[in-house]
Structure formats: structure tokens, C-alpha cells
Specification:
cell membrane, transport, ExbB/TolQ_transport, Biopolymer transport protein ExbB, 7 helices, mainly alpha
């Protein structure tokens, strides 16, 4: 409780700009955690390429198998016709449906990470305007009054950068995981098409 009140006291001079900045940061981290859990789940529970080929040959996949590759094989087996050309198209169609799942929320995470320093910059501008208003009224003799505007400018800039730097790092990390998973999906489709 003491930590929250200390954090609140530190961020309060940032003014109203802190509300969208904190909101964007919280939203971004919720999406990052969701994507991180989803990628870890895909890596842990998915079937191997050999298991996918065996399932295609045996025409059955155990129900406990989950993951991108397992879902692709299961959906394909449900609609398999036995005609090679049609089955290949069915396989490609299911692979295309899986692609948006891989890239889901990554564009929003990147956008939120890019927007955070802009909120910080907006806070800098409003803080400097406040400072110049104080200077125009009292001159440079009232340092305490000027400190409020300068504090607003610096805290919002610092908060925007603190939200953006790890957000951009995580965005790149998640994009790499998505690219790797798309590669696995392409490899699976290519191998399974040859097995048909």
C-alpha cells in the first residue's frame, strides 16, 4: 500500500497526461503477457512434425493434442475428401486461417509502444507551457512556482520512455516468435502436402 501511495505521489505532478499514458502502458503489458503465454503454450503443447505426419497417415489425432500444428491437422482430417488436389487446397485454407492467430495483437503492441513517448512529449509541451505562464506572471524570481511545470514536463517524458523502451523490446521479441511459428506452419503445410 505504501508503494502505491509513493508511486502515486511521484506520478501526480505529471498531470492529466499521465492518465492515457498509464492506460496505454497497462493495455500494452496485458497484451504482451497474453501473447507471451500463448506462444509458450504453443511451444509446449504442440505436436511434432513426425506426429503430424503419423496422424495424417493414421487419419486420427488424439484429442489431448493442442497447438497450432495439432489444430491444423485436426481441422484438415475433419474435412479431408481423399482427392489430392482438393485436400491440398483444404490444407492451405486452414493454414491461412491460422496465420491471423499468430500475429494477433502484435500490431497493437507495437503501436502502443510507439505512442507512449508521444504522450510523454505532449506532457513535456504542456509542462513547458505551464512554466512559461508562471514566468510571464511572476518573472523568474518564483522558483517554486516554475518547478511545477518543469516537474510535469520531466515526469511525463520519463514515464513515456519507461513505457516505450521495454514495450518496443518485447514487440520485437514477439514478432520474432511469430515469424518462427509461421515458419513452422509453412514447413508443416509443405511436408503434409507431400504426404497426400
Amino acid at each position: 500500500m505504501d508503494m502505491f501511495s509513493t508511486t502515486f505521489d511521484y506520478l501526480r505532478p505529471g498531470g492529466l497526461i499521465m492518465i492515457p499514458l498509464i492506460g496505454a502502458s497497462c493495455w500494452m503489458w496485458v497484451l504482451i503477457i497474453e501473447r507471451g503465454i500463448w506462444f509458450a503454450d504453443q511451444a509446449r503443447r504442440d505436436i511434432s512434425l513426425r506426429q503430424a505426419m503419423d496422424a495424417l497417415k493414421d487419419r486420427i489425432l488424439p484429442t489431448e493434442c493442442r497447438g497450432l500444428r495439432a489444430d491444423l491437422v485436426r481441422q484438415f482430417l475433419d474435412e479431408r475428401t481423399g482427392r489430392r488436389d482438393i485436400d491440398r487446397r483444404i490444407l492451405e485454407r486452414h493454414a491461412m486461417r491460422a496465420r491471423p492467430l499468430i500475429r494477433g495483437s502484435l500490431a497493437i503492441i507495437t503501436t502502443l509502444a510507439a505512442v507512449a513517448p508521444l504522450f510523454g512529449l505532449l506532457g513535456t509541451v504542456t509542462g513547458m507551457i505551464t512554466t512559461f505562464d508562471v514566468i510571464s506572471l511572476f518573472g523568474t524570481g518564483n522558483a517554486k512556482a516554475m518547478a511545477g511545470g518543469i516537474s510535469e514536463a520531466l515526469i511525463t517524458t520519463q514515464s513515456g520512455l519507461l513505457a516505450a523502451i521495454p514495450g518496443l523490446f518485447m514487440s520485437v521479441f514477439l514478432h520474432r516468435r511469430a515469424t518462427r511459428l509461421e515458419g513452422r506452419l509453412d514447413e508443416t503445410v509443405s511436408v503434409l502436402k507431400r504426404c497426400l
